[in-house]
Amino acid sequence: MQIDVRHAIAPDHAERMNTAELRNNFHVPDIFRPGQISMTYCHDDRLILGGIAPGVEPLTFPSDVAQITGTETFLQRRELGLINVGGPGKVVASGERIEIAHQEGLYVGMGTAEISFTSEDASNPAKFYFCSAPAHQAYPNKKVTLEEASPQPMGEASSSNKRVIYKYVHPDVMPTCQLLMGLTRLEEGSVWNTMPCHTHDRRMEAYFYFDMAPESAVVHLMGKPDETRHLIVRNEEAVISPSWSIHSGAGIGRYGFIWAMAGENQSFADMDFVPMPELR
């Protein structure tokens, strides 16, 4: 398993970066690699994100993951959330078999020592996008369906940002230590996600874009509100968003995205909105 490490970047440093430097620090490509687990370790709030792309043979987190977490097992002092954006799959956590269909999610609590992942059909493999954050208490593992994910309509068609937010790993659905995770789908004809934009100085966030045609792209806006930058993001790629950065984008054609947060609190409404005249 390849582990990529991304160090924390100050806002004044990001302002001086060219396109390649921005992508090297904030853009995460190649999330899913057949038969492998990919992992990116972010020093921002110690969030880990990645992709698990199993065949019909089980995939497990290798023992050398302890090199980066400093623990005997991956989840010894961590919690994990995942959402399946592929075909039907199976997770075995501490001996419990859990079937995870397309767009179903799973929370795995701190201290789960044994966890494996498989696909039901190698021709239609599961794709488990996961995020993990440090934890201080063990909470029960919990599967979450799309219907159980506390759907919340947002936005307006007139401003091209009509969407539905599904909260999978969230206090409305289950107790967790600090991890928040959910999925947002745009309505037909809408292109903007999270606009008007905001920051939340108390939490970092990561966006994973998916369900896009090969020729499509999202222009992801980042940076301080008065010093914005952008990243071109393709299907099944992610963006790391520090707490000082806005995180918003506009896409060409249909897309969805999975958001995950870690930090000081779990208040989804704790946002510092940016008035549109102040956006630069």
What's the topology here?
Elements: E1 3-6, H1 11-14, H2 19-26, E2 27-28, E3 36-42, E4 48-53, E5 59-60, H3 66-69, E6 78-84, E7 89-93, E8 96-100, E9 105-108, E10 115-119, E11 128-134, E12 142-144, E13 152-154, E14 163-169, E15 180-186, E16 192-193, E17 198-199, E18 203-210, E19 218-224, E20 227-233, E21 237-241, E22 248-251, E23 256-263, E24 272-273
Parallel strand pairs: 1-3
Antiparallel strand pairs: 2-21, 3-4, 4-11, 5-10, 6-9, 6-11, 7-8, 7-10, 9-12, 13-14, 14-15, 15-23, 16-22, 17-24, 18-21, 18-23, 19-20, 19-22
In short:
Helix content is 6%, strand content 42%.
Overview of this structure, please?
The chain is mainly beta. It has a single domain (3-278), classed as Jelly Rolls. 6% of the residues lie in helices and 42% in strands. The protein has three helices and 24 strands. The protein has helices at residues 11-14, 19-26, 66-69, and strands spanning 3-6, 27-28, 36-42, 48-53, 59-60, 78-84, 89-93, 96-100, 105-108, 115-119, 128-134, 142-144, 152-154, 163-169, 180-186, 192-193, 198-199, 203-210, 218-224, 227-233, 237-241, 248-251, 256-263, 272-273. It has a seven-stranded mixed β-sheet, with no helix packed on it. It has a seven-stranded antiparallel β-sheet with strand order 2-21-18-23-15-14-13. The chain is globular and about 55 Å long. The model has no long low-confidence stretch (mean pLDDT 93).
